[in-house]
Design goal:
Blueprint (H helix, E strand, L loop, with lengths): L2 E7 L8 E6 L2 E5 L8 H4 L15 E3 L5 H4 L2 H6 L6 E4 H28 L13 H5 L5 E4 L5 E4 L2 E7 L7 E8 L4 E6 L22 E5 L12 H14 L3 E5 L5 H14 L8 E4 L1 H12 L8 H5 L10 E3 L3 H6 L7 E5 L9 H8 L6 E4 L8 H6 L4 E4 L2 E4 L3 E4 L9 H8 L8 E5 L3 H15 L4 E2 L6 E5 L3
Helix pairs in contact: 4-8
The protein binds zinc ion.
């Protein structure tokens, strides 16, 4: 039996993760992500996926982030009706994230219709809320750490990755005609000292390893994140400004709420209102509350006075009207809104109103992909285009890198050092080319592993021959 892999996304880019495996006549897709960021990447969402959809037998998801799950509704729209495997908390998050992604697609199509810039007439969404709903009956969720048979020759097991709620690495055992082989997909790896998530578990053996490399060329400063966060907030408070934080609804928002309320309770920053202006962030926070076994925000911590889920300084804003009322805010406060890379959602109207104000601050707390407004801000652009207008950037732009949900270079290497034997092949995925190639060099130099590859988009490899 032969085993082949084809990289349909998440290769030399951090979005669109899709890894196609042919295991004999069993065909499966690990992750089913949407391309985001640069227009040339986003265009791929509309193109042929690179395999006939009705030949795919199963999909496995590492976690719920849209760049790993957001193509599923499109896959279903093209006729996919087989199982989608993921962890239980990932399944719960998908019920929030996929309909939201569909709504964004629908909004974009409506906007394009109004502006007349789409080549479709009338402009079509990539998928609709109905397409997103069609995914849910296919989901088969399973706990961590248990082997699950998904085919007579293939078993998988989820391992704790510490990236966001539900995030897993996937171990895959393949029974060939003569030999058994093991594949390991790292998924997105979390950090070793995250305030909310536990560290990623170590895996000792893989014949073939696929490892992410988002921060493969970056060492996140060892600064004390909370100290710096306090200093930034205090600076803005002194000039009577507002701190605007674009954050992923899932993961970073909960970490921020935890850190900010603790700083207030310890008297290190003034008691300000924290406005969580995102219905999805509110629902995701509820899921963190529901699945307390998978993170550190447990009851013991809550009874300590840091009740992040029910803190008097937190204001949850669900309605559009409440959201708009924040535009009038002229005294110190913190606004957390999505999306995290400023590509859409309510953060846009906040940026539109806050960027021209010298006293305010945009605080970036996560990875900002190429082609996003977040990256433009990070790189110091003086004008940002929002709602078709050029908005001047007078507000201070700051980055708090230590809050990233991704392992940095040293942490990736720390995780890799858990392997007791050298994998036959290692593929560096989920990183822009400079990050992925830096990671390859590090692995070759430090561990002397050979056969380390940075695959290209749509490239195929034969993993095993006649096993
Ligand atoms: Zn992720």
């Amino acid at each position: 039996m032969d085993v082949n892999i084809k990289f349909l996304g998440g290769a030399r880019s951090v979005t669109g993760s899709k890894y196609l495996l042919d295991i004999g006549d069993f065909r499966l897709l690990v992750d089913c992500g949407l391309f985001q960021g640069l227009k040339e990447l986003r265009r791929r969402n509309w193109q042929d996926i690179g395999v006939e959809v009705n030949t795919i037998d199963a999909v496995i998801l590492t976690h719920a982030h849209i760049d790993h799950s957001g193509y599923l509704p499109r896959l279903c729209k093209q006729g996919y009706q087989n199982p989608v495997y993921c962890t239980e908390s990932t399944a719960a998050l998908l019920e929030l994230l996929l309909p939201d992604a569909a709504q964004l697609q629908e909004e974009e199509a409506r906007y394009a219709a109004k502006k007349g810039y789409s080549k479709h007439n009338p402009p079509l969404p990539l998928y609709t809320t109905e397409d997103a709903q069609a995914v849910f009956p296919l989901i088969q969720s399973q706990p961590f750490d248990e082997w699950i048979s998904i085919h007579e020759r293939v078993k998988i097991r989820y391992r704790y990755a510490g990236h966001i709620l539900g995030a897993a690495m996937v171990e895959m055992l393949i029974q060939g005609d003569h030999q058994q082989k093991k594949l390991v997909f790292s998924g997105d790896l979390g950090r070793y000292h995250d305030p909310v998530m536990h560290p990623p578990v170590h895996i000792e053996h893989a014949d073939v390893l696929l490892v992410e490399s988002t921060y493969g060329n970056r060492q996140v400063e060892k600064e004390e994140v909370t100290e710096r966060l306090a200093a930034l907030v205090n600076r803005v408070v002194r000039r009577e400004g507002v701190v605007l934080i674009p954050a992923f609804s899932v993961g970073r928002t909960q970490t921020l709420l935890f850190l900010l309320t603790r700083l207030m309770d310890e008297g290190k920053i003034p008691r300000l209102f924290i406005y969580v202006d995102s219905p999805m962030a509110i629902s995701a926070t509820y899921l963190y509350k529901k699945y307390q076994d998978y993170h550190k925000l447990k009851d013991e911590d809550l009874s300590d006075g840091h009740d992040v889920f029910n803190h008097p300084q937190i204001r949850y804003y669900r309605t559009q009207q409440a959201s708009m009322s924040l535009n009038e805010l002229r005294h110190p406060a913190i606004i957390i809104s999505a999306s995290g890379m400023c590509t859409g959602g309510r953060i846009l109207h906040h940026l539109y109103h806050r960027l021209p104000r010298y006293e305010d601050m945009v605080l970036l707390v996560g990875y900002q992909a190429e082609g996003t407004r977040g990256r433009d801000l990070l790189e110091g652009k003086e004008m940002i285009k929002i709602f078709g207008e050029h908005v001047p950037v007078h507000a201070e732009v700051a980055m708090l890198a230590g809050l990233s949900a991704h392992a940095d270079r040293e942490e990736l290497l720390q995780w890799l050092s858990g392997f007791k034997a050298v994998p036959k092949y290692t593929f560096i995925i989920h990183g822009e080319t400079p990050a992925a190639t830096a990671m390859k060099e590090q692995i070759e130099n430090r561990f002397e592993w050979r056969h380390v590859f940075v695959p290209n988009f749509m490239e195929s490899f034969r993993l095993f021959d006649g096993i």
